[in-house]
Every structure is written in structure tokens, then in C-alpha cells.
Amino acid sequence: MRFLPAALIALLALAGAPANADTASPPGDDAAAAVEGGADIAGCIDAAKRRDADTAISLCSRALDTGHLGEAPTIAALINRGLAHVAKNEPASAIPDFDRALEMRPDTVAFYDMRAMAHAMQGEAAPAIHDYAEVIRRGAAEDAGTAEHLLRQGIALHLEGDDNAAARLFTQARRSAPEGSDDELRALLWQNLMLQAGRQNALAPLSAAAAGRDLTQWPGPLIQYYRDQITEMALEQSLDDPDPAVSAARACETTFYVAAQALVDGRFGVAKDGFGHAQTLCPPTSIEFVAARPEAIVAAQTIAPDVSNDMLQCQAADANGDITTIIDLCGRALGHPDAPDVWRVGALTRRATGYYRNGDLDRAIADLDEALALRPDSIDIYRQRSSYRLDKGENSGGLADLSYALTLQPDFVPAYVDRAWARLAARDTAGALGDFGKAIAIQPDQPRLHLGRGVVAFLAGDDAQAAADFTSVIEATSQAPYAVLWLALTEKRHPGDSGRIVESGAAALDPYQWPGPLVRFVRGEISIEDLAGQAADPDPETARKQDCEASFYVGALARIAGDEASARLRFEHAREVCSPENIEYHAALAALSAR
User: Fold this and answer.
1) Contact at 8 Å (CB) between 313 and 341?
2) In the list 377, 435, 559, 560, which could disulfide-bond 203, CB 3.0-4.6 Å?
3) Span 146-300: which CATH code?
4) In Å, how far from its chain's centre is CA 530?
5) CB atoms near residue 358 (< 10 Å)
6) Residues near 408 by Cβ (< 8 Å), separated by ≥ 6?
7) ω before 5 within 30° of 0 (cis)?
8) pLDDT band at 38 (very low <50, low <70, confident <90, very high)
9) Rounded to a whole number, what is the largest CA-CA distance in the chain?
10) What is d(CA 274, CA 263) in angstroms, rounded to the nearest whole number?
């Protein structure tokens, strides 16, 4: 097994300069010649400078065999011989030399670095990582502050397997670092990673630290990425700065911390490549460069083929959408207790989806309970479980999941929208309006949020608020067919000053391109038979969506006309065929519960 070629090159460079203070070499060739074996020491050093590994090994060995060298010449001979063995790809022969050098000088950081390299080349991950932990722990500059010392101690503890203790040190480091500094950012992200690895709530501290900050300015985008609010591509677009040194520093941090998150997420190949790339981007004195070397070893350790194969089969079954296969294959994947947490979470959430589609809500919810025990701050899993609980009629449990998700990330707009629809279905229109108001306060320029609040207001009978929201959407966008639809319904129920806005909004639409026919129907320009003829797309998914929308709006008009029996039939059909992704689904649920 081979690891970290960039670091190997860096260490081999030491062989060409053995008088470096970290190698504890004798002061010079003349001093070396003054003791027995000194000529051999001098020759060993000269051969190392010339990168003549065989000669260096021979002369260093002859000098050591005299048994009369002092401490400094002995260490020089050991280190240069060890590096020569490394250069010849003979790590097993190099390790004993580094061992002896460290027995004599246990505080010399460079010797741990050299031995770590040799262990890594030998494929001995555990001792290599242990030595790298010592390099990180001992390698702070003389002027390093408290925060950096705490960071280094925490990273070393993490590499030694104590993530809980590491998380505590990172918390201390974050508190001691100046706000907005690189040390604070490092501590914040390391704390997040350790809490994730320890199956603890990692998102709440990150959200609390981000509160009140301008997350559009660096390092805000990196924090947003860790909060799963922007993609990796969007993160990369934030790296540029007029100062090339600033851009380079951002690229280093981004590469390392994206790789670190990938490692926690079980994307080992991505992590290994990222840590390798970090070693080409980051300054050798940076924490990211030093930490990338042992983390690359961690990421390179293999997972048993049967574990990875079963997990891949589970993912493939989910992609194919075969319910029985999803349940069977994800169940087989879950039979591996040694699978990484994040893989088990993926199998549990996929199998839960299979159970849900199969109508087995109890088993679906039980799988999500288990997934949350592994990832207790996953907003996506809380949203998924909330949906299943609500479908099961457990309104309080479904709402509780969404409310807790919002404590983890108070500015997460999709959870406000989910909770608004859930509250609407429970006839809590005031709460639903409040949630849409909070979402709009976070994203005021998002038309769909204004549309949603308008729908809730319409269903609550507040036609003035509904008309105001629908109008704002129509005026803000060149084409807003659904806002036109809802405003036309509002105008039908409560004629007022919106007719001209409906007219202008409808004029911008293609009357024959869906939902143009719906707009024409609501405005009384075509019959229900004409509408049915235009809601028959050959694509089954499109046809289902058209059926959903036509059913709801026909029902809404029937209710306005006073035909309650026809309205309820249409709303019940919409509830059956609409997807929860459609506003009409939630509106149909609310309409059915209203009377």
C-alpha cells in the first residue's frame, strides 16, 4: 500500500539537508571528522545531500557500528540512514532507525513525521496515524495562541479515537478564538465534525454561531455548506478574491473541510482524493496540511466488499423504485452492524420509503427512529418522519418533528413551509399564516412563499390578504399562472379591484399551454368538457398532475357556486391523486377539513 507521495517528497528533501536543526545533525563535516567514525558520518551526510541512498546507508551503518559516536552524530546517522531506506522504498528498515532517534530525542517533531511516513508506506495505518497525531500535537509555532494549541490537541485526540473529548476541546478553542478568525472557523467546523461522528447534535451549535453573521461573506459560504444550505459548486464560486493569497487560503480550507465532511458522510473515495489535493494547496505549516495526511490514511482504509456491495444494491433498488426490492435489499444491507453510520442511515431512510409506499407506516416510522438515533440532527429525516406521522394521523408528533427541526436550524425555510401546511390541515390557519410569514421574512423575494401564504389566507377566508399576496407574485414575475388562478378564484368569490390584474396576468400566458386552459376555465371562457379534453397529456406523470390540478380548481369553483357535494367529490379526488409537492394537495386537505 502506498500513501501520500507529496509528503514523501517533502521528507526526502530533508535527506539533502541533514544539518537542519530538526534532524539534530552534527554542526558540520569538520566536527564529524574529529570523532571516531566521523569521516563516515561526513560521508553519510554528503551521500544524503547527493541523494545516493546506497552510499548513505553503507557509510551511516559503518559509523554506527563503531559504537563510539556521541548523541548528535548518532542521531544524524540514524535519521540519514532511515531517510535513505525510505528513498529506496524500504520502510521496514527505516522504522527502527526512527524509533532509536525518538528514544534519544522524544520531543523532535520531525522524527515523528518521518516515522509516520514510513509506517504509512508499510501500510501500517494505526501507528502512522498515532505518529501524525504527535506531529499535530507538538507542531505549533512558538507564537501560536491558545486557540491553536487547543485545536491541535483536539485533532490529536480525534486521530487517537476520542471524538467526544476532541469536541470539547474544539468548543473551548472556538470560545477562545477571536470572532471571525481562521482559528474560530477551524474550531467551529472541527466541533461540527466531531459531534456528527459522535452521534450528537452538531447542527444547533453551528446555527447558533452563524446567527447574525453575513453568510454571503467568507467564511460564511463554508458555514452554509456545512449547514447543507448551498452546494459544493456554489461554495467553489465563493473562493475568488482580488488578492491571490486570499483565494489560495480559501481554496485550501474548502478542499480540506469538504473532504472532511465527505469522510464523515462515508464518501471515502471523495475524501481520500480531497485530502490528497489539500496537501498540494495548503501551506506545509497549516493545520489543514498536517491533518490531511493522517485523514487521507483513514479515508483509504477499505470497507469489506460484502458491506459496500449490499449498500450499493440498496441504493440501486431505491433508484429503480421497486418497493419490494428496496425493502429486501436495504434490509440485507442493514444486516451489517459494522457498516459506517451514514451508510446505515441511507439504508434505513430508503427502506422507510419502501415501507411507506407499501402502506406500512409503523415500520417506516420505526426505521426513521433508528436513523435519527444515528444522526440526531438530520433535518431531512425529521421532515420525512413528520410526513409519515401526519399521514398516520399523528398530528402532534408530525408537528413536533418540524418544530424540533427548526430549533436545529431556525432559518430553514422548507421546514416552515412543511409546518404551515401541517397546521393548515389541522385547521390552525393562524399558525399556518405565521409560519409563511416567518419564511417570507427569511426569503422575502421568493414568489412561491407569497403564493403559499395567499392560498392559506384564501382558505381562511381572508380575501384581502390573499389578493395582496397573489398580486405581488403576478407583479414580480413575467409569468405567474398559479397566482393568476388563485387571484381569479378570489375575484370570483369577492369581486373587487383585482379583475384588471387577473386580465394582465392571463394575457401573459399561452392559453393552450397548461395551466392556461385552467385559467380560461376559472375565468369562464371554456367548459368543464373542454378542460377535460385538454388535461390528457400522454405522459402519465404529467397527466396525473393535470388531473390533480383540474380536480381541485373545479372543486373550488363548485364551492364558490354553493355546490358543496360536487366540491367535496373533487377535493377528495385531488387528495388521492395529488403529490404533497403540489399546493393543491394541501389546499384540498384544508378544504375537506373546513366543512
Assistant:
1) no
2) 377
3) 1.25.40.10
4) 49
5) 14
6) 201, 203, 204, 207, 377, 379, 382
7) no
8) low
9) 112
10) 10
The angle, 0 to 180 degrees and rounded to 10, between the axes of the packed helices 379-391 and 395-408 is 170
What is the C-alpha separation between 30 and 39, in angstroms, rounded? Answer: 9
Nearest to 406 by CA among 393, 392, 420, 388: 420
Phi, psi dihedral angles at 124 (to 5 degrees) = -100, 90
The SS3 of residue 126 is helix
Q: Are 5-123 and 146-300 in the same CATH fold?
A: yes
> What pLDDT is attached to residue 37?
55
Distance (Å, whole) CA 452 – CA 424: 11
Confirm if 150 and 190 have CB atoms less than 8 A apart.
no
Other CB atoms closer than 10 Å to residue 516's CB: what's the count?
Answer: 16
> What are the residue ranges spanned by the domains of the chain?
5-123, 146-300, 445-507, 510-595
Cell numbers at residue 38, please?
566521523
- What confidence score (pLDDT) does residue 316 get? 93
3-state DSSP call for residue 15?
Answer: helix
C-alpha 333/C-alpha 509 separation (Å) is: 50
CB of 413 closer than 8 Å to CB of 439: yes
Rounded to 5 degrees, φ, ψ at 363 are -70, -35
How many CB atoms lie under 10 A from the CB of residue 9? 9
- Which stretches within 321-428 are classed as H helix? 323-333, 341-357, 361-374, 379-391, 395-408, 413-425
287-300 helix and 125-138 helix, angle to the nearest 10 degrees = 170
Grid cell of 474 as nine digits: 403576478
User: 242: which DSSP letter?
Assistant: S
CA distance 181 to 174: 10
Among candidates 450, 471, 584, which has minimal Cα distance to 518?
584
Is residue 219 reached through a cis peptide bond, with omega within 30 degrees of 0 on the bond before it?
A: yes
The alpha carbon dihedral of 121, 125, 126, 132 has a sign of positive
Extract the C-alpha cell encoding 168.
470539547
Please report, in angstroms and rounded to a whole number, the separation of the first and last CA atoms in the chain. 71
Q: Give the span between the Cα atoms of 19 and 29, in whole angstroms.
A: 10
Amino acid at residue number 187:
A
Instruction: Report the alpha-carbon distance of residue 398 to residue 423 in Å, rounded.
Output: 10
* Predicted confidence (pLDDT) per residue in 441-484, tens digit: 999 999 999 999 999 999 999 999 999 999 999 999 888 999 99
Q: Does domain 5-123 have CATH number 3.90.1600?
A: no
Question: Whole-model pTM?
Answer: 0.82
What's the mean pLDDT in 22-39?
45
